[in-house]
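Can anyone check this?
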Amino acid sequence: MRYLLYFSLVIFTLTSCQQKKDNTDGHEHHTPSLQSEADTVKKSLPKETHAMIGDAHITIKYTAPVVKGRVIWGGLVPYNEVWVTGAHRATSFEINRDFNINGQSVPAGKYAIFTIPGEETWTFILNKNWDQHLADDYDANLDILRFTVAPEKSEEHQERLSYVIEKISESEGVLKISWEKINLVIPFTVERS
């Protein structure tokens, strides 16, 4: 009887190990509790945002820094200088449909998002060179558009930089960039097929 119990325990252990092995397909799998723990990490993390506006698929890839008690605006992020609007690599914005932003038509493609933060207004930039480190290789001649936008002050503190795309309709969306107590809200429309 003791051997039967021992044998059953060995089989159970081997089966459990095999199931764990089968679930590790080279991709990270997070449970909600592990994901919330990851948000307490006090270093920049790679992030992705995906959204559908009508039949347009939008992907934003960025590295999200944290405040960590630092002075952000006019400190870590200087005023009146080009910023990758994230950490490390330039933030990329990819869309598979032509779209319109601030009255300007932009062809489908992949771009870098840059901003120039100011005390009163910011400059929002889409640049053709999406694959670059910080603003080291930034070239204004590659800007596909740039315009001035007023940042919104928030009562809520956003510890980690966040990009969100809110769907308004089948052709309208809003890009919202939030960090510390600043929100940048950029409306856009997608050209229908």
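Reply from J.R.: I decoded it. The chain is about 15% helix and 45% strand.
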